[in-house]
Structures are given as C-alpha cells and as structure tokens.
Amino acid sequence: xxxxxxxxxxxxxxxxxxxxxxxxxxxxxxxxxxxxxxxxxxxxxxxxxxxxxxxxxxxxxxxxxxxxxxxxxxxx
Amino acid sequence: xxxxxxxxxxxxxxxxxxxxxxxxxxxxxxxxxxxxxxxxxxxxxxxxxxxxxxxxxxxxxxxxxxxxxxxxxxxxxxxxxxxxxxxxxxxxxxxxxxxxxxxxxxxxxxxxxxxxxxxxxxxxxxxxxxxxxxxxxxxxxxxx
Lengths: 76, 144
Known about the structure:
The complex is a heterodimer.
Chain A: E1 2-7, H1 10-16, E2 20-25, H2 30-37, E3 47-50, E4 53-55, E5 66-70
Parallel strand pairs in A: 1-5
Antiparallel strand pairs in A: 1-2, 3-4, 3-5
Chain B: E1 3-7, E2 23-30, E3 34-35, E4 38-47, H1 49-67, E5 71-77, E6 79-82, E7 86-94, H2 97-114, E8 117-123, E9 128-130, H3 137-143
Parallel strand pairs in B: 1-5
Antiparallel strand pairs in B: 2-7, 3-4, 4-6, 4-8, 5-7, 8-9
C-alpha cells in the first residue's frame, strides 16, 4: 500500500470537491489510480506530474509521491 | 533576467531595456467578449504555481536560445478577469525586431500548449465551462 498526495485542478477539482487529498492506494501507475477515482474526464486528455515531473499517466509512482492531475491546459 | 510571475490582480506592464538591444517587443492577451459563438461575460484562470513557474521559465529560456534573445519575461493573471483585462503579458529584448516578433509568436503558441494554467469561461446565457476540458470531444459525445 502506498500513500500519496493527489492535487486536483479545474473541472477535476470541481468533480472531486477538493484541491488536494492524501490517498492510500495499491495502484501501480497514475492511470490505475485515476481509474479508481472514477472521475468523468476521459483520461486520454490527461497528463500528470509526479514530484514535479510532467508526463504520461502510464508512469509508476512511489510511496510519498505528490501527484498532480493535469487536464488540458488553456493559459496564455 | 528571465522571469515568469503569476499575479492575482491587474498589473502595470513592466519595462525591459538593454543597451545591446534595439528591439523591445511585447504582447498582451486580453479577455474577449466571444468564444465559439457564445457571448463571454468573464473568465477565471487557475494555475499550479510551481509547475506553471517551472514550465514557463523553461519555455522562456528555450525562446532565448532559439531566437537569440537577450531577455524574455511573462506575467499571467489568476482569478477572475472582466472583459478587456490583460490575461498574459510577454516581453522580449533582442538586438533586432525580426527575432523579437518571431519569438513572441512562438512563446504564445508554446505557452498555450504547455503551461499548467486552466481557464473557465462564464457565458451570457448563464452557463460556464473549462476551455479545452468541457468542450473536449469525448465530453460532447457523452452529452449526446
């Protein structure tokens, strides 16, 4: 079991009702973790940051990681 | 000195200067009253401060290398913006104008794709939506 911090933004924050939470999980990858959260945004549109490193959801994470779910961006 | 700052309130555009640079070029992206055929009343921007800072700084550094700039800086708003307010300011210093103008276009194109900042539009019909999220193809299919 791993404990991680997950941070939510934009519509994910609104759906989850939180901007951040600690989660205990057996998920191997962020994609698995996201599937368990059962949020409405299709994961094909998502990236994530694991301890500040932005990349695909298919990556594994360690106990204690800070994970940011990154929906499609629209700055600028 | 490459700089990226998030500001939660309206700001004055800064000056940038260098005696080695004949060109100082800036761009301001402002809140427009229409998007996708809908009348827009206001916007909100939300950012991940550390990720946005890191990615914007990286992007501005790449711009300096790619276009031979002396300096590049940007400011982006967070929070609620009314029509006409400035959402993003970008400034570059370069020896000559060609690379300065080209850099601004490149920086804006890259910024819109890469930096973890999200935009929610509030429409005149009372609805609101996260741009690129609520109007993403699969969201529309699910609504159909």
